[in-house]
């Protein structure tokens, strides 16, 4: 199993369009996202996001938040913990909370999930994005599940 | 990639049942719907909805709204724009808003998505459904992603 | 088509973690859940949940509810009706309602779905779970769609 971790933030004229713009910024705006919850196979490898075929179906874990209140601080975070026999992913998104806390909460939740499964953590990765809303803003952080069928080979 | 565009509206004794009845009216009541967001491959072809195998897994974009307040006008709309290298789909649903506006909003959002991607629009299709609630009403508008495995061949 | 019916309940330090703990108790905590709505093929067979490969993608119907208000009674239920040419699944979750009612509502809704389709019910199965919240509690009831790829063969 191969995954990529991405994030993005953007403004837009509507909630849908600001969300779409944030997905574009994250590099996953041209595919069909299917939301899944949130486990990783053993021996999961982390890669840079390759170029995805427009219009293909892509499984992902997605943390996202939108607001149209000027000045709001919006944060989205994914925490990934990889162990010997599996891995766990946590999504966390918050409004007007310290970005440090959003990150810390995500980390604590994924550590708890791994300890519940008796898994030792080999790798812990946290991706976070924050944004101060101007008009209509959205943040996204995502773990994208990669496979041969969705990637453009060059 | 082949798609079909459908819509339906219905009443029912509960929210779940009115939703199910609206799906039946739209022709997609007997399959498992997996919601995806909302891009089309290049050379996407529009077809009439074929007969689907009961119980198969079907990817779709779904706009839906339910209300149990007698007299509410509920509207659901999908707007599809197809360009040279990809296509975009927008879902929009509103309560007690002019059906013309719901349609117009969906069109504006999908035009914006295409312009963000530098795509010229060759085809623009908008499907819309409106319903005045009596008891418990639901509207659905959907873009259904078709493939060999989900269709009954005759 | 083969399905398994499972349920679980658990407490946890956060909503996400109590949900994850309830999934673990139900036996589906180590996979990626993709939510689908809610039809069964003809000749669907009911099996005990086999051991699932950690990190695989698993389609399911999921009824779930969480609360952090001490003393709340939370209930989740799935009702499965199997007929000659297809089957229907209903999910129902409620807070502080009689568990008998939650079950009865689910049964009535699935009976209505089958009668709308002109299907006679051969088998009717209802799975229900209830929990009195202490700290942060979650209940889950689920119909899991099984296939060769997600099962550990021994």
Furnish the topology, listing elements before pairings.
The structure is a homotrimer of 154-residue chains.
Chain A: E1 2-11, H1 15-26, E2 32-35, E3 39-40, E4 45-46, E5 57-67, E6 73-82, E7 87-95, H2 99-116, E8 123-132, E9 137-146
Parallel strand pairs in A: 1-4, 2-5
Antiparallel strand pairs in A: 1-9, 3-7, 5-9, 6-7, 6-8
Strand sequence of the main sheet of chain A, in spatial order?
Answer: 2-5-9-1-4
* Helix content range of chain A: 10-25%
CATH architecture of chain A: 3-Layer(bba) Sandwich
Radius of gyration of chain A: 16 Å
Biggest β-sheet of chain A, characterized? 5 strands, mixed
Structural class of chain A: alpha+beta
End-to-end Cα distance of chain A: 21 Å
What is the number of strand segments of chain A? 9
CATH fold-level name of chain A? Pyruvoyl-Dependent Histidine Decarboxylase, Chain B
Please write the CATH class name of chain A.
Alpha Beta
H/E series of chain A: EHEEEEEEHEE
Oligomer kind: homotrimer
- Bulk shape of chain A: flat
CATH homologous superfamily designation of chain A:
Pyruvoyl-Dependent Histidine Decarboxylase, subunit B
Largest interface: B-C, 19 and 25 residues
